[in-house]
Amino acid sequence: MAVARVLFGDDVIEADCLAGDIAGDCVYVTADKISGRFQVSKIDPRVLTAIPSVGIIQSKPTSTTCLVRLSGVLSGVYTGLTPGAQQFVALNGQLTESIASITPLPNQRVMVQQIGVALASDTIAVLPQAPNIHR
Description:
Layout: E1 11-16, E2 26-34, E3 37-42, E4 55-62, E5 65-75, E6 86-89, E7 95-96, E8 110-112, E9 114-120, E10 123-126, E11 132-134
């Protein structure tokens, strides 16, 4: 019997980030490279200039540098994920499985973006999708 294998990219970039950004934050590109390093920061789905998410901070070698998982498998950063559940960018820049929790305030727009799918309680397949803007 043949076994189907799904292969994901193993794309990780080194980037400059803010000291307050943490592992597990979904990030967007803030500027062009500086001295050959990408520039990223935690996403805020309510700020349309701070989207879309391009990946997830995997780790922080220093307070202002990070390794960003653009695609592929990310393990050990999260706990409590539901295997098979879609993962969306939450209002706090982390993950949520509930699209209903991403609701805008009156007269505000918010971005809804699927960032991946949980493979296990502590593992996500990072597969950023194009965001949808909701009002």
